[in-house]
Amino acid sequence: MSAEATNPGVPLRKRGRPRIDLRRLGRVALLGPVSRDRLPDAIGHVAEAHRAHHPDADLAVLSKAYVLAESSHRGQMRKSGEPYITHPLAVTLILAELGAETTTLTASLLHDTVEDTDVTLDQVRAEFGDEVCYLVDGVTKLEKVDYGAAAEPETFRKMLVATGNDVRVMSIKLADRLHNMRTLGVMRPEKQARIAKVTRDVLIPLAERLGVQALKTELEDLVFAILHPEEYESTRALISAWEGAQDPLTDIADRVRATLREADISAEVLIRPRHFVSVHRVRIKRGEMRGTDFGRLLVLVGEDADCYAVLGELHTCLTPVISEFKDFIAAPKFNLYQSLHTAVVGSEGAVAEVLIRTHRMHKVAEAGVVALGNPYAQDGTAANQAEPADGERADPTRPGWLSRLLDWQESATDSDTFWATLREDLAQDREITVFRTDGGTLGLPAGASCVDAAYAQHGDEAHGCIGARVNGRLATLSTVLNDGDTVQLLLAQDASSGPSPEWLDHARTPAARIAITAWLDTHPAGGQGPHGQDARRPQLQPIDDGPGSRGRPTGRHLSLAVEAQGAPVRLARCCTPVPPDRILGFTVRGGAVTVHREECPTVARMRGTGRAAVGARWNDPGDLGCAADYRVTLVAESFGRPRLLADLTEAIATADAAIVSANVEPPSEQRVRHTYTLQLPDAAGLPGLMRAMRDVPGVYDVSRAQQPASTG
């Protein structure tokens, strides 16, 4: 696949200035600057884009950084055959077009010098100062080590810690990954897929959380082209066929302009094409595409009050679709996004989605934290805050989710645990705010319970939590919180009390899960066999399905044996093992053995803390399916559409599986996550069941759950 083939953003995204010409820049880079008293031609694009956002910017430091980068990278080539200097130039241009300030662009030009050349951090610090050195160091730590099982998680951890002190580190990383994804076609298909998956699981969610929509949407399209080539080509063909037709949004846009002129409201009305993934989601949702589905109207005004004035005129003069209205100005998203969303009906019943925002909101919506500049500069700009009385620097670009991530990563000492937990954390792309009785607030992911609130507010003291009041009423710790709830956590006076293993079933945040697991690992209440037994020579013992089986059907014999004499056995809910999964057990409080699938993240956490595994196996492999009914928790990822839930449940019923519990999370950007706990009469039927669920239109992935299933 060529680099051009993996660049689906070109047909839809129209830029004000041309994209950087890598071949021309390559020639200029080899020839060098023509004169010492002017900027090198190779960064003319960067200078032009930078001055468009910062007219008074001093370009001398950019020239100095370019000269160092070009001379240090001279002779190095990219896999595409271009001189290596074209990469930092392209990354810097991406950031310049988003409005990044000079320090970020300087560090971007130098971001690979310490990693790939003889330039040292001390040299960068001496020539460009501490801030540029910190940014270069932050990205260098990420890219210095080759991808690997342990290296990749640790480099991401180091980058995130650096981002916690200065979000510009992540800005450079996102732009770096975008340019690498644009030119990924020169690599082997398997490497393309591996990089695309990390981009999908980690960097795209980070771009979303930092509000950098311009980078996020193009990254989504590039990942879509690599991981789903057939769907991508189908979407490309659909868009190409539409581009030659009459755009019904044009007539609606003209009518909106006329309406706002008559109301004497100064506004800019634009047609904003959808990117490829957005078109694909709409197609899945609606089946047959309408002409207005390929784009949306964007109305830009000067002041916040004008946004509501525009909304009032549109809803008065055009027929509104009330169910489509959302106010993200009064209640901004956690990633800084602000806008009014509505939809109006045009001629012949055409429905157009409309976004209404100020020019400032639009800049932040596109560039996110990049648009906020340097949070520590003392220039009094809107993005900057005065230092608080205690002398600590206040960073308005460090949102609550990033602070929570930095807190829990300190406890995740094992690389595998950190990597798995990071992906789980980033997959939770909606936040709620709950209020404390002392007047404070807690930011939590959607679906969080009172257990999560306890650890978010009290840290390790939450081990002694015995209950909660939600909106003034007594509630169990398993109660799922909603946006706007008021929660009061009740702590026991006994300092020796601690959490039970069942708390893990209700903990959604990494901080809570890591803290609970660590306490259980260090407080095993038992673990020895009955008095008089030789614990040094464990024997395989068949386990009857009894009270310790955590909700499994009683009175039937499970084909399971563990190397722990007489110990009660629990099949872990976090991974719901069934034959013929490879399994391991761990002794927990009370001497019980919890059995996990070997690939379960909990196994890595247990081993990381030095816990010894207990051998476990399934008995009678030739007759696994007849020994008992087996429970399994499956997660179905899908694009939202009508009758999706009915089709999924029909596929499950056709496979002779019974639904024990089900949870459907609220849609997010047309994506829906379904979690089913199912009872199977035959464990051998699990692969066929998963295939049947994947075959349901709109479902793009079905996987075994790696965390406790919510039962709603």
Number of strands: 21
Give the structural class: alpha+beta
Query: What is the typical, i.e. mean, pLDDT?
Result: 77
Number of helices: 25
So what's the overall shape? globular
Described by strand count, sense and barrel closure, the largest sheet is: 6 strands, mixed
End-to-end C-alpha gap: 44 Å
Portion of residues within helices: 40-55%
Backbone CA Rg: 28 Å
Content of β-strand: 15-25%
Question: Which spans have pLDDT < 50 for at least 5 consecutive residues?
Answer: 1-39, 142-147, 378-397, 526-558, 621-627, 708-712
Detailed description of the structure:
The structure is a single chain. This protein is α+β, with helices and mostly antiparallel strands and 712 residues long. Helix content is 41%, strand content 17%. It contains 25 helices and 21 strands. The longest helix has 21 residues, at 189-209. The chain is globular, with a radius of gyration of 28 Å. The protein starts with 21 loop residues before the first helix and ends in an 8-residue tail after the last strand. Residues 1-39, 142-147, 378-397, 526-558, 621-627 and 708-712 have low confidence and may be disordered.
List the helices and strands and how they pair.
Blueprint: H1 22-31, H2 44-53, H3 60-73, H4 86-98, H5 102-109, H6 113-116, H7 121-128, H8 130-143, H9 151-165, H10 168-182, H11 189-209, H12 213-227, H13 229-243, H14 248-262, E1 268-273, H15 276-286, E2 295-301, H16 304-317, E3 319-320, E4 326-327, E5 340-345, E6 351-358, H17 359-367, H18 400-411, H19 415-427, E7 431-436, E8 441-445, H20 450-458, E9 465-470, E10 473-475, E11 486-491, H21 510-522, E12 541-544, E13 557-562, E14 569-571, E15 583-587, E16 593-597, H22 601-608, E17 614-618, H23 624-627, E18 630-639, H24 644-654, E19 658-664, E20 671-680, H25 686-694, E21 699-704
Parallel strand pairs: 2-6, 7-11, 14-16
Antiparallel strand pairs: 1-2, 3-5, 4-5, 5-6, 7-8, 9-10, 9-11, 12-13, 13-17, 15-16, 15-17, 18-20, 18-21, 19-20
Helix pairs in contact: 2-4, 3-5, 4-5, 4-10, 5-8, 7-8, 8-9, 8-10, 9-18, 9-19, 10-11, 10-12, 11-12, 11-19, 12-13, 13-15, 18-21, 19-22, 20-21
